[in-house]
Design a protein that fits this description.
2 domains; six-stranded mixed beta sheet; single chain; about 35% helix; alpha/beta; five-stranded mixed beta sheet; about 220 residues; D-Maltodextrin-Binding Protein, domain 2; binds 1-O-pyrophosphono-5-O-phosphono-alpha-D-ribofuranose; elongated
Length: about 220
């Protein structure tokens, strides 16, 4: 950890990265190379002392927990699935809005007592059904979750719903809301103490940029 530098971890997914960069630009922070075309993973920025690295969404929390990045931007879905120890979440970045929902077939046959649930959010799903006192078998998938109820592999899915178009196109419907999701700013707990002034300034800069986006 460089005492005079802030290392930021950004989520590299295409849609999200565009919005992260737009927010940073509003905060007066622009990359010196174009992250959309460069193969680099660490970028210097126009603001002295601020660099960022590009990571898979599920790795952002890991890099921040380990203090390799002081701050990060990640979706609440990924944070809930990863576990929320080792970092603070001081700011809702107010983009990337979606929901984690339980969904199933529109024309759902009668279901057995013990359901099979397909999801990539295994921990979130486990906590959700445990809270309901419902015993389920969870099947981990990495994508195309909608296929699971269609093919009979699972009865229901737990997945991200944004517009609902993917569910609808596959004969599925959202049933129960599990979590509202948006992008969050996360901060390593040690960095918050050791680099307090730098980190606090950075959070305020981002807070102002988020407010500016909403006016
Ligand atoms: C998510 C999710 C759905 C889709 C929902 O996938 O898994 O497939 O978005 O969006 P909609 O409600 O607007 O149709 P994403 O595009 O994030 O890719 P992934 O499969 O890698 O998760």
């Amino acid at each position: 950890m460089d005492q005079n530098q802030i290392m930021l971890a950004l989520t590299k997914g295409d849609r999200v990265l565009t919005q992260e960069l737009a927010l940073l630009a509003r905060a007066g922070i622009e990359p010196l190379d174009d992250p959309q075309s460069s193969r680099k993973l660490i970028f210097d920025t126009s603001l002295a002392g601020v660099q960022f690295m590009l990571l898979r969404s599920s790795d952002v929390a890991t890099f921040v927990q380990h203090g390799i990045s002081d701050v990060g931007m990640a979706g609440r879905d990924v944070l809930l699935e990863h576990g929320e120890d080792g970092y603070y979440q001081p700011l809702d970045l107010d983009f990337g809005h979606c929901r984690i929902m339980e969904a199933g077939l529109i024309e759902e046959p009668s279901l057995p007592r013990r359901l099979r649930i397909a999801t990539k959010f295994v921990n979130i799903a486990q906590r959700y059904y445990a809270r309901l006192g419902q015993q389920v078998d969870i099947i981990k998938l990495y994508g195309a979750m909608e296929l699971a109820p269609i093919t009979g592999m699972a009865h229901r899915i737990v997945d991200i719903v944004e517009t609902g178009n993917t569910l609808k196109a596959n004969g599925l419907t959202p049933m129960n809301l599990i979590h509202d999701v948006s992008m969050r700013l996360i901060v390593n707990k040690t960095a918050m103490k050791v680099k307090h002034r730098l980190v606090a300034e950075f959070i305020e800069r981002m807070r102002t940029a988020v407010q500016a986006a909403n006016t």
